[in-house]
Design brief:
Layout: H1 4-17, H2 32-48, E1 53-59, H3 63-69, E2 75-80, E3 89-91, E4 99-108, H4 119-125, E5 126-136, H5 147-152, E6 157-162, E7 178-183, E8 186-192, H6 200-212, E9 223-225, E10 233-234, E11 240-245, E12 249-256
Parallel strand pairs: 1-9, 3-12
Antiparallel strand pairs: 1-2, 4-5, 4-9, 4-10, 5-6, 7-8, 7-11, 11-12
Helix pairs in contact: 1-2
The protein binds 2-oxoadipic acid (OOG) and magnesium ion.
């Protein structure tokens, strides 16, 4: 029987020092439920040290991401205050092998919970939507993991940024928002938000249902990342990444050593 607290401490340590670790599942048989318990235990440690839960992230919500990571179902992770970037600048020091992905974020004004949630409930609870990016950085060697591994490692969560300009959730059909990602001027990824479970709102529905199983909900004021629209882009020192969202502007990310 695996000691979930010990595993959580191990994961937390590697999240702190930016050193890659072998997969947990190479040593233990970890179920998905146990992996989510590990994720919660890591968060407890972070909260004890003064951090704050500010939202949730859905991950592996697009077929492209599921295929490239070899994990065929959506997962979720926690967003902490310490992960939020105030400006779109990433420092590589302390990271293992970070990548960036374009996402649409929702910010809620009402509590959203329960197993029977519908897209209508999500719209009613949404204050605004905003273009965002997530920096993922798996703590596992070679960015390689099983479902249980990646869940225990907070779904590879590392940092996130939401753009300055927010939008009404009704300003456009969100699934039709196209995205272009450029790296140092070259187009490296293109996609549309429909890649995220058909429509980003479905990502919130899926997330709320998963949270309901552990008695959790999205609280008012929280931010939710709905999942990468394209495959994640590798980052190196000096890179400049432009993430352009159709009708929602461009975020320019600067990568520093
Ligand atoms: C897992 C996290 C995926 C997303 O938006 O799909 C994720 C990973 O690919 O390491 O955050
Ligand atoms: Mg993501």
């Amino acid at each position: 029987m695996a000691d979930l607290r010990q595993i959580a401490l191990d994961v937390w340590q590697h999240q702190q020092d930016g050193q890659a670790m072998p997969k947990i599942t190479a040593r233990y048989e970890l179920s998905a439920d146990e992996a989510y318990q590990v994720q919660a235990l890591v968060m407890e440690e972070q909260l004890r040290r003064g951090d704050r839960l500010v939202g949730w992230k859905a991950g592996l919500t697009s077929a492209a991401k599921q295929k490239s990571m070899g994990v065929e179902e959506p997962i979720y992770g926690r967003l902490l205050a310490s992960q939020e970037l105030a400006v779109p600048e990433l420092y590589l020091s302390g990271k293992v092998h970070p990548r960036v992905e374009p996402e649409i974020a929702f910010v809620l004004k009402k509590r959203l919970g329960g197993a029977t949630v519908t897209p209508r409930d999500v719209w009613l609870a949404t204050e605004y939507v905003v273009p965002a990016f997530e920096i993922i950085d798996s703590r596992y060697e070679n960015f390689s993991f099983t479902l249980a591994d990646v869940v225990a490692d907070n779904a590879s969560g590392c940092q996130f940024y939401t753009a300055t300009q927010a939008y009404s959730p009704y300003f456009a059909p969100l699934d039709e928002i196209g995205v272009v990602v450029r790296k140092n001027g070259d187009v490296v990824q293109t996609g549309a938000a429909a890649a995220v479970l058909g429509h980003p709102v479905e990502s919130i529905v899926t997330l709320v249902r998963m949270l309901d199983r552990v008695g959790a909900a999205i609280e008012p004021g929280m931010v939710v990342l709905t999942g990468g629209i394209t495959e994640a882009v590798h980052l190196g020192a000096g890179d400049r990444i432009d993430l352009s969202f159709d009708r929602m502007g461009t975020i320019a990310l600067a990568v520093r050593p």
